[in-house]
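Quick question, first post here. What does this chain look like in 3D?
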Amino acid sequence: MGLFGLFGKEKMEKLDSGLEKTRTGLFSKISRLIFSKSKVDEDVLDELEEILITSDVGVDTTLKIIDKIKERVKTEKYVGTDELNELLRSTIASLMEDGPDMKNPDFTTPDGSPYVIMVVGVNGVGKTTTIGKLANNFKKAGKNVYIGAADTFRAAAIDQLQVWADRVGVHMIRQDMGSDPASVAYDTLASAKKSGADVVLIDTAGRLHNKINLMNELSKIKRVMQKLVPEAPHEVLLVLDGSTGQNAYEQAKQFVKATEVSSLAVTKLDGTAKGGVVIGISDQFKIPIKYIGVGEGIDDLQMFDKREFVDSLFKK
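> Answer (accepted):
Ran it through. Tokens below.
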């Protein structure tokens, strides 16, 4: 079975369901706007700007979208409001970063050492759950997976991760609460290399109260892992809670300053009307969104595809 095996109709149904509240909130506002107008003019653009900002797309990204639509209107002289949805769809897609190749994701290394993913993010964003769901997908694809419980500042974090490891049936390396996180990461990678593991997922402490301490801690974890695998981590995955709207954007800004984030996972998009934040985060940080969480089930972590996301968001 391939990685993240949901494709086609079943995947789109889950995505549509997960984005229902965002789509409903966004489109009820846009529909009301279009109903009373015949063409896209300054009044329509002003109202559209307000709709996008209040849908958590973000001010800077919203202004980019409005400017691009203004250019189109200026060029074509007349743009009917019935064209607005398609115009929005294409404009938003053009601003978002492409995600990974969904059907051929590459989680291999040239020398055959484990592919190491260091997972970062504040407490409560769904970091542990994301690690568990990632481990599940890798395991189902036939990968030998190790998890390192390097968030040693909270006993609950270690125990919760152990529950996921046991549920999925993968190896987890842990130490006592208060242990050196870098030591846990080193032991995990050493054990993974010895057993010929394919993928290693390293959890890290979710604290942002002191950016310098966070930066130093993550740098130390990287250094000790590189003693065993010089290229580790191959990926630094930042987990963000989509239901927090612009707070997710602020968290991303802080973590990007603290470490070299290479991919994003946006969780909890189901049950929230704030899914528009995905658009702003993708545009502003130019970091690929690799995964989105569209439900609580173990299989509800999807590989992100911007075209599928935009199609679902603008589905009537």
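The two ends are 33 Å apart (CA to CA).
The longest helix spans residues 59-76.
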